[in-house]
Amino acid sequence: MATMADVARHAGVSVKTVSNVLSGYPHVREATRERVRASVDALGYEINVTAKIFRSGRSGVVGLSVPELGQPYFGELADEILAAARRHGLQVLIEPTGFTREGELAALRVPRGGLVDGLIFSPAALVQADAHLLDDLGYPLVLLGEQMFSSSVDHVTMRNIDGAQAATELLLDAGRRQIAAIGMLHAETAGSAWLRYTGYSKALEARGIEVDTRLLGWADDAWHRANGARAMADVLDSGVRVDGVVAFNDALAIGAMYELQARGLAIPQDVGVVGFDDIEDSRYSVPTLTTVDPGRREIANVAVDILRRRLQETQRPGAERGSPVLYLAGMRIVERESTPRRSG
Amino acid sequence: MATMADVARHAGVSVKTVSNVLSGYPHVREATRERVRASVDALGYEINVTAKIFRSGRSGVVGLSVPELGQPYFGELADEILAAARRHGLQVLIEPTGFTREGELAALRVPRGGLVDGLIFSPAALVQADAHLLDDLGYPLVLLGEQMFSSSVDHVTMRNIDGAQAATELLLDAGRRQIAAIGMLHAETAGSAWLRYTGYSKALEARGIEVDTRLLGWADDAWHRANGARAMADVLDSGVRVDGVVAFNDALAIGAMYELQARGLAIPQDVGVVGFDDIEDSRYSVPTLTTVDPGRREIANVAVDILRRRLQETQRPGAERGSPVLYLAGMRIVERESTPRRSG
DNA sequence: TCGCCGATCTACACCGGTGTAAATCGTTTC
DNA sequence: GAAACGATTTACACCGGTGTAGATCGGCGA
User: Fold this and answer.
1) Are A214 and A180 contacting, i.e. CB atoms less than 8 angstroms apart?
2) Which residue among B96, B258, B283 sits closest to A286, beta carbon to beta carbon?
3) Contact between B259 and B247 (Cβ < 8 Å)
4) What is the pTM (predicted TM-score) of this model?
5) How far apart are CA B332 and CA B293, in angstroms?
6) Which chain B residues touch A96 with a CB distance below 8 Å?
7) Is A261–B53 a contact, with Cβ atoms under 8 angstroms apart?
8) Which fold is adopted by the domain B160-293?
9) A235, A282, B51, B167: which one has the fewest Cβ atoms less than 10 Å from its Cβ?
């Protein structure tokens, strides 16, 4: 494998001139530039990326830690982030944390090694009390989701309360009053479950409806479809009448629809269902699922953008650090078949 | 950030001794070892991975190029590969190719840069005629899937023909005779579509049934659900009677089930449906989907294993290169609700 | 006591680039 | 024609580890 020194010798210039040509330094005579280029081609030289990284301290690789790619929400999010990163010439090292605390702690340590310049982190097991772990990490971190907040870290997330509230209102507007909430978690006081529940209850309260605890479906493992079906079954088994369902994500909604249909209930005639996330599944479920689009692409783009800006700040030692950002992506309801048409 | 030299000074030993302690070199006195360990802790030293990579020429990062993580099959496959890699201390750089030729060619170039030691490559746009591109890449490559084959490259794939044949036989055994094949592609003469079609037609021929071209549903974009629904609609619109469906993947099957149910056909009573891939969706569709489990986890484990072995071969210059492997993972049918119970 | 040997530890070159400061060169200015 | 200046080019240190070869040390057999 040819090195820069080989090219320099071949072109009759110094190593540094070769380096200058390759890195686009402007003050190189055109003739020299061409001679170097010719030598590069002649020797089939390719720059040694690891040496470059070592010397410059920048790898151009950002870490992405998500719980699990098999879950469509995270798979699709990862695709968006990968695409955004690539548009800026960054590569992405994915670190799945498997919903475990150790996995997430390990992910936070990865960039310390130096191979990864910064991290986009979507926690699922760490909780608010762990927020101090995010301080002074020594590398740029962008937090996703609402598992935890920290005033010292950039954060990109979605309008959970507004989204869940809008979803609930959609059903209320259609005259539904017995609206179940699927996806409650015991452990949380600040995560997405709690926020979405808050939106749900706000919408009810605004109409003077009290929350009926029999309508709350608990899903304590994870927001997989199986738990949606089970939570829905629990609610129905309680004997309470149900004419609407707000599920805290699409997987839960699809699981809930499965259970409703298995019991002979028609969607949306008997029960209207709204999900959350707008994953691709929701477009092809039976019936297709009305859902909240939380602005996933926007989240990905903004997260990568913020990280890039922080990396640039790090590069210039003199530059001021901007203060941490909290960005809320836009939200909108995507109406499909699982909810009744709004009556004018 | 503390360096090895700082630790050495603090512990009163040479840099190399610190290096020896950290890399587990046996001939270090226990007292020295402990002194170094203490200094490492005291200074919060962490080894500079980029320097190590630069010096050793091995990054411990393998590339994974798949079309798209949002597609559950690839998301789940990526999870398995990431898990297998981690068990061996490897990290994974994912390069989504977006089903494009340029994306896949770019992915093949990534390891040349030096940051990635080897590549696990699941092509979707390159074709058999491009197989020569896989020769002499200068790094270990493991090929997944059946888009292309090359006798010079390690290859891990699944029993497509057997799987599709078994799926078709399952319906035949239940007395179904008008079995549609959903997911035909015009472009292929060797890819999974072709192989799965081969299995389908073999099963029919074994029973003396001729393939009825009206039962072939074409899905020329990609094997997304939308195309499954459309292909199913095309078949039904042709006026041919249908009592069974073999879909070439689960997403197509779920799309097809959507279309069947939209037309009032009952599954499995009127039409039995079998998918391929055993993605998580298939467990929660309505009805749940009988499918072919192609041994995804086995594929991931074997692919990582082969790559590891090749990387080790590369490390020892004297070592013999084993000849390229073609590994076929085990296959099995997972029976769920979408097919009639086998009558004894 | 001396020589030998393995265990332990160290000095130093080196991996392949990039940053810095300075040398060299050709013009332009006065 | 000399000083001044920007454009070009270069030498050299340096990033932070690891490999190699050799120094040092303590114990043991002769």
Assistant:
1) no
2) B258
3) no
4) 0.87
5) 5
6) 79, 82-83
7) no
8) Rossmann fold (3.40.50)
9) B51
List CB contacts of B26: < 8 A, sequence separation 6 or more.
Answer: none
Phi/psi at B276 (5° precision): -155, 125
Report whether A202 contacts A330 (CB < 8 A).
no
Which among B43, B50, B224 is the top mutation candidate for probing chain A, defined by the most A β-carbons within 10 Å of its own β-carbon?
A: B50
A23 by Cβ neighbours in 10 Å (0-12 / 13-18 / 19+) ranks as exposed
CB atoms near residue A267 (< 10 Å): 21
Strands A61-66 vs A91-96: parallel, antiparallel or unpaired:
parallel
- Residue carrying structure tokens 């449906």: B273
Residue B109, token pair as written in the block: 């170039």
Task: Give ranges for CATH 1.10.260.40 in chain A.
Answer: 1-47
Q: What is the DSSP letter of B265?
A: -
Q: Which CATH class is domain A56-158+296-328?
A: alpha beta
The structure tokens listed for A239 are: 């004997």
CATH number of B1-47: 1.10.260.40
Q: Which of residues 50-69 of B touch A (CB under 8 A)?
A: 50-51, 53-54, 57, 59, 61, 68-69
Taking CA atoms, B278 is separated from A120, B15, B83, B163, B340, in Å, by 30, 53, 19, 12, 18
Contact status, residue B294 vs residue B276, Cβ threshold 8 Å: yes
Give the per-residue pLDDT at A213. Answer: 96
- The pLDDT tens digits of the residues spanning A23-38 come to 989 999 999 999 999 9
- Pair of tokens at residue B56: 């050793």
B144-170 confidence digits (pLDDT tens) = 988 888 889 999 999 999 999 999 999
